[in-house]
Amino acid sequence: MANLISSLSLYLQAAGGVGAVLFFAVFVAATLLFFPASLLTALSGWLFGATGGTLIALLAGITSSLLAFGLARSRLFPHVAKGAVRSTNLSRVLSLAQHNGIVLVLLLRLSSVVPFAPLNYGLGASGMHFKKYLAATMPGLIPGTFIYASAGATVSDVGVLARGDFSPLEMMQNTGVLTGAAVAALGLVLLYLLQRCIRRKMGI
């Protein structure tokens, strides 16, 4: 699998605009199938740079979020929706989301307490209003997307991402992007602290 991801990544990087479109499609399809969005976002940064990677991953992430929400709401995939809400932590989060709406979902997006795909499907199955979901999702995805894409842009070997060995510490090894790496590292620390805070408040 790692070799396949590495080969595909190198092809997409050499394909220019076509590669960006293909990556967008792969990102959306993969995250709908529960592939980690953080890893794909870091890969986007490696492929297209911090700025381009952020924009592509953000558009793909929003698209995937809206599709998952719609699929769960339409009950086209009821088993997926049921599987998403089977998690004790997610069930508790969804219960709170019905009362706190936009603010809670925004915090969940910022902190990544609940994985990307289960949260999307779960919120769709929860009965949350679409406008509230959209209002919290769009701004909530921006910081994390920028941080992971910026971190991915500093990784020298795509094999690190393909093997799942990516660590925020890797980005500090590239002195040519020290400022950007420091900003990304600070962002990761802030996301970690926010995640701990939300977990403590929700008791999860």
From TrEMBL:
Primary localization class, coarse: membrane
Keywords: Cell membrane, Membrane, Transmembrane, Transmembrane helix
CC terms in the record's Gene Ontology section: plasma membrane
Residues spanning the signal sequence: none
Superkingdom to which the source organism belongs: Bacteria
Pfam family for this entry, one: VTT_dom
Subcellular location: Cell membrane
Boundaries of every VTT domain copy: 35-153
UniProt xrefs under InterPro entries: TMEM64, VTT_dom
Topological type in the membrane: Multi-pass membrane protein
Family: Belongs to the TVP38/TMEM64 family.
Protein name listed in UniProt: TVP38/TMEM64 family membrane protein
